[in-house]
Design a protein that fits this description.
Elements lengths: L13 H30 L2 H20 L1 H17 L1
Amino acid sequence: MANVINLNDHLKDKYDEQLITKIKLCRIRDEIEEKLNNYSITENNELAVSLSSGRYAAMKLTKIIGKEDTIQFFQDCIETACKT
């Protein structure tokens, strides 16, 4: 009983994969938002950058997750923006 084995080192379950995915998505989101913000400043045109990135997102998401889920995603984004 002197040797203690940490079972957490050996577990590879779905929770771990979901956590890793969430961390990666947050990192990517933050990096992209920073790049878009910098591009808006460089171009001095927030509207053009916002419309372009929104169009890209809408088109890609519709193909990846479907129209209804894409609309829900954008509704969630709008609600979040209105709270801040």
